[in-house]
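testing teh design pipeline on a random one, pls ignore if ur not involved
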């Protein structure tokens, strides 16, 4: 078996990073009423040449438990925790990173939405709290709650985004999902990682 040193490992991570960049992953944010300005800086790399800047008014500090948006921003809930995204999967919890990958980059009206489920809240997800003896069922609920959701979204005739229910692409990646390595040889005898 080939020995892996720090250099080989960094090469492996670099490949994974290039795949992510090459996929054209962009954050999905709905901006209304903002005027974008395209900036072209010759010192930037080719992937950074065009950046869009938006002038948004700052928000005042607020201690209430509510969503606050700067003027010009809007939102719509597409999916929330435990909503069905297919016959067997539900939308996850603790969403943080979101990316939209359009099927047609010219139209941008139909594509895949990736939502990362960074961590879990054991008390809400499985009912576990410190000091309890954790059951196998609780651990499995927690393993299912992390990872990510992939859902197909499409604009309807009114221009509103909707989830395409039971689309063949809709699925969850969890702590039990097999993830193949993008590497020529097995790593520690394996070609996949779990979770």
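output:
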């Amino acid at each position: 078996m080939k020995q892996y040193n720090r250099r080989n490992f960094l090469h492996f991570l670099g490949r994974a990073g290039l795949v992510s960049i090459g996929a054209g992953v962009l954050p999905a944010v709905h901006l209304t009423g903002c005027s974008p300005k395209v900036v072209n800086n010759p010192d930037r790399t080719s992937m950074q040449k065009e950046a869009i800047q938006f002038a948004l008014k700052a928000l005042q500090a607020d201690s209430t438990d509510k969503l606050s948006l700067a003027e010009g921003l809007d939102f719509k809930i597409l999916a929330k925790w435990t909503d069905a995204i297919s016959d067997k999967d539900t939308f996850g919890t603790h969403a943080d990173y979101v990316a939209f990958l359009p099927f047609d980059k010219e139209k941008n009206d139909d594509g895949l939405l990736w939502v990362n489920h960074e961590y879990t809240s054991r008390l809400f997800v499985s009912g576990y709290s410190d000091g309890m003896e954790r059951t196998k069922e609780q651990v499995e609920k927690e393993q299912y709650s992390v990872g990510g959701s992939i859902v197909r979204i499409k604009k309807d005739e009114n221009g509103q985004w909707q989830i395409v229910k039971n689309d063949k692409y809709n699925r969850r990646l969890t702590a039990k999902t097999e993830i193949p390595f993008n590497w020529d040889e097995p790593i520690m005898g394996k070609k996949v990682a779990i979770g």
